[in-house]
Specification:
The complex is a heterodimer of chains A (243) and B (132).
Chain A (H helix, E strand, L loop, with lengths): L8 H4 L3 E8 L7 H14 L4 E5 L7 H5 L7 E2 L3 E2 L2 E2 L2 E5 L1 H4 L8 H14 L5 E7 L6 H9 L3 E8 L2 H16 L3 E10 L5 H8 L4 E6 L11 H5 L2 H13 L3
Parallel strand pairs in A: 1-7, 1-8, 2-6, 2-7, 8-9, 9-10
Antiparallel strand pairs in A: 3-4, 5-6
Helix pairs in contact in A: 2-10
Chain B lengths: L1 H19 L4 E10 L6 H11 L8 E7 L2 E4 L5 E3 L7 H9 L4 H4 L10 E5 L3 E9 L1
Parallel strand pairs in B: 1-2
Antiparallel strand pairs in B: 1-6, 3-4, 3-5
Helix pairs in contact in B: 1-2
The chains are: A alpha/beta (243), B alpha+beta (132).
Chain lengths: 243, 132
């Protein structure tokens, strides 16, 4: 018996120019805020952008954007709804706000299902908000989506960066394109993360200072885009992503 | 028409197998669909009709249905999934992504949502026959 779903994924991604995963080995570093802000800022520039929340057990991009009362349409698969000028997809459309406990095999199956039935259409870029860790979603995506590139997020903490270092080395071993590292929630002027990143041979994309006001923007995209956080992403990060 | 995307996956997968096995024509395709996903047989067959290439001009498509068996990780109880026990919205959510069953279905004995889908999820290419 063969699971036919993986065969059609190349076709689903054929008209997407770039696929960028915003990822971190560690949780709580701000991946979802960064992924959402990158996507929103790129859409404001007139690019055709998709945002895919792949944190199946703890999705949060819908909360960041204040997505409510909207569902994908069914047309030769699932068509992501347009949210704040983004083609947007999340498991939350089907699980709602209920806890969805998924083991590894379920996560792989849910990913395969959504990759094979979601009709993204033409996109300049698809941003993937990744779950934390180096587990199933990351490994499955590397196997299934050959054009994937990674932006890795860390905080200034050694606790986060030690895991990120392992992730960077792993991505190199797997020969996956890594655009670079973002140091988020920076609270000191120490350049340790930058030095260590560059010593490993990776690009240090930017740092983003800890922004106390960011929490107030949750659920309001206009507020989010007006923050210093979003300004840094726009001016420093998106340019270095080549967009 | 979510089934259309799954039908397309079957056509692409079968075409790949045919290319690998040097089949000039595919005469029979047997697929198995799990009850959990509640796939509409007629829409799948319609999808095949719309999507088929010359390789499939004389293909007989057969759809087998598989019961969904669930097993609790907590107390090892096994039970059959029954669509009838769900409201329409929940059944539809599971139809699109079967794994979201973990948000709605609980073990009938201990109430745990931590269960395994032992069999009967999704769509499988069971067998293809062809002419070289």
């Amino acid at each position: 018996m063969i699971d036919p779903r993986s065969s059609v994924i190349v076709k689903r991604f054929k008209n997407i120019k770039r696929v960028v995963a915003v990822s971190s080995g560690k949780g709580g570093v701000g991946k979802s805020m960064i992924a959402t802000t990158i996507a929103l800022k790129m859409a404001k520039k007139g690019l055709k952008v998709g945002l895919f929340d792949l944190d199946f057990t703890s999705p949060s991009t819908h909360l960041i954007m204040g997505v409510k009362n909207i569902q994908p349409e069914e047309e030769k698969g699932i068509v992501p709804p347009c949210v704040n000028e983004l083609a947007y997809m999340s498991l939350v459309f089907y699980s709602g706000e209920l806890a969805t406990p998924l083991r590894g095999v379920d996560i792989s199956n849910a990913l395969l299902e959504l990759l094979s039935v979601t009709q993204w259409g033409d996109l300049d870029i698809l941003i993937l908000d990744m779950p934390p860790g180096l587990g199933d979603v990351m490994l499955d995506l590397i196997k299934l989506v050959k054009k994937i590139e990674f932006v890795i997020v860390t905080t200034s903490s050694q606790l986060a960066f030690q895991t990120v270092k392992k992730q960077l080395k792993l991505l190199r071993e797997l020969k996956v394109k890594t655009i670079g590292v973002v140091e988020n929630m920076k609270i000191s002027r120490i350049q340790l993360i930058q030095n260590e990143t560059e010593k490993l041979g990776f690009v240090y994309l930017t740092n983003i200072p800890y922004d106390k006001t960011l929490e107030d923007s949750i659920g309001d995209c206009e507020k989010l885009l007006a923050t210093n956080f979003a300004k840094i992403i726009d001016e420093n990060l998106i340019k270095k992503m080549g967009m | 028409m979510h089934e259309w995307a799954l039908a397309e996956a079957v056509i692409v997968a079968a075409s790949k197998i045919a290319a690998k096995e040097n089949l000039k024509e595919i005469t029979e395709v047997i697929i198995k669909v799990g009850e959990l996903q509640q796939v509409e047989e007629e829409i799948i067959l319609f999808g095949f009709k719309q999507l088929k290439t010359d390789l499939f001009k004389a293909t007989k498509f057969h759809i087998l249905k598989a019961k969904t068996k669930l097993k609790c990780h907590n107390c090892a109880t096994t039970w059959d999934f029954k669509k009838e026990n769900l409201d329409e919205t929940t059944a539809e959510s599971i139809h699109f992504v079967p794994e979201v069953a973990h948000a709605y279905v609980k073990c009938p004995k201990c109430g745990s949502p931590d269960f395994e889908i032992v069999e009967g999820r999704g769509i499988w290419l069971e067998k293809i026959k062809g002419v070289k």
